[in-house]
Structures are given as structure tokens and as C-alpha cells.
Design brief:
about 80 residues; 2 domains; two-stranded parallel sheet
Length: about 80
């Protein structure tokens, strides 16, 4: 089993007890390049084309990959409507 987190200390010790997790990878907060990569992937989904990528990359500082994926799905559904 592989687990990832941005802060290992925030994960319950019961979850990372020996025998439960084989590999634990601590993922640091995304830098600007990583955030841009995620946004480029998200923008492959339907959108209205009026997105300022530079603004978005600055705005999403501190968000996790999960947060970005969730926002991308919500935005895609909004654009489809």
C-alpha cells in the first residue's frame, strides 16, 4: 500500500502503523511549475476559453492535487450546463 500526504504529521498514527502502509511519500506544496502543469491538464476538459492561466496559477497556491482535480470537475460541469 502506498500513501501520500503533504504533511506526514497530520496523518493519524493508526493509519501509518507498521504493516498498513508499505511506502509513505510526503509530497511538498506545489511550486508554480507544478500548479501550471495541473491547470494545463484540467483545461483539457470543457471550459469557456476565458481563463487567465497566470491568474489561476497564482490564486491556487497552497491547494493540493485533490483540491485542483475537484475544482476542475466542478468547473467542467458548470461549463457544460
Amino acid at each position: 500500500t502506498v500513501a501520500t500526504a503533504q504533511d506526514k504529521t497530520a496523518v493519524s498514527p493508526e493509519i501509518i502503523a507498521p504493516g498498513r502502509i508499505d511506502l509513505f511519500v510526503e509530497v511538498p506544496e506545489f511550486d508554480m511549475e507544478a500548479r501550471r502543469f495541473f491547470i494545463e491538464k484540467i483545461l483539457e476538459k470543457p471550459h469557456d476559453g476565458k481563463i487567465n492561466m497566470d491568474k489561476v496559477v497564482r490564486y491556487i497556491s497552497g491547494m493540493s492535487g485533490y483540491d485542483l482535480e475537484r475544482i476542475g470537475k466542478e468547473a467542467s460541469l458548470y461549463a457544460i450546463r
